[in-house]
Automatic annotation (TrEMBL):
SMART domains: HTH_ICLR (SM00346). PANTHER family: HELIX-TURN-HELIX TRANSCRIPTIONAL REGULATOR, ICLR FAMILY, HTH-TYPE TRANSCRIPTIONAL REPRESSOR ALLR. This is IclR family transcriptional regulator. The keyword Transcription applies. It comes from the Bacteria. The keyword Amino-acid biosynthesis does not apply. Keywords: DNA-binding, Transcription, Transcription regulation. InterPro entries: GAF-like_dom_sf, HTH_MetabolicPath_Reg, Tscrpt_reg_IclR_C, Tscrpt_reg_IclR_N, WH-like_DNA-bd_sf, WH_DNA-bd_sf. It comes from Amycolatopsis minnesotensis.
Amino acid sequence: MTGGSVEDNQAPPGTQAIGRALSVLKLLADADGELPAARIAASLGLSSGTANRVVRALQAGGLVTHNPRTDSFYLGTGTILLGQAAQRGFGLDRALPVLEQLGAETEESVNLTVRDGTESVVMLRVQSTLPLRFEQHTGARFPLYATASGKAILAYSPDAEHYVASLPDELPPLTERTLSTPKQLADQLAQVRRRGYSLDEEENVAGVRCVGAPVLDSDQRAQAALVLQVPTVRMPPARVRELGGLVITAAKEIAQFVPIDRFMSR
């Protein structure tokens, strides 16, 4: 979260402080390292006094830690415990062995992603051990239209037609191979429904091809996807079909114990 003011005089009584605290936590989560209180205040449009009160309250709750040497703040150990509890609640601790098995079998990087509005977000990742690999981190976000995860989810989403219709006539390119029109995306979603897996042909990152499969709920809807990320040099056409079958099988296994309804957009 960057920029913007969280000063809101129209907020119902008692909610403004909560909103400010959440904004600080999101800002620190996105930061690469520590942030001084002055930077937090400026980024969120808060007065210095308000910013200090919020971070000190979060510090008292163990969610933020103060570095006295730099007079800066970063996420505290309390957020680690919350994150671990959330992972258990979402079944990610049970999904991890499936990702590890798929990674060991293919020697490629594996992501479990979820939809957040118009973006695909990496929730769980197993990195390839091969020297040539695509480095990524949990929490990374990408447009749905340019990723195998996004296409896998959209193909089995009830609002897919609305999403496609809301896109501009020319899609913003991320690489030279990003889909350029909503019609191209609609055609690919139909292909995903026919074969069961999606493809990203260097559309999000040059030199990386991805194969994804939806993690479906009991109504055959998707809010999550399992994706293999492979350097293009290791992904000939014959291997695409092989990996497609493997990722479909693994996604079905995850669907048995991950409560997909918890990932549904709020």
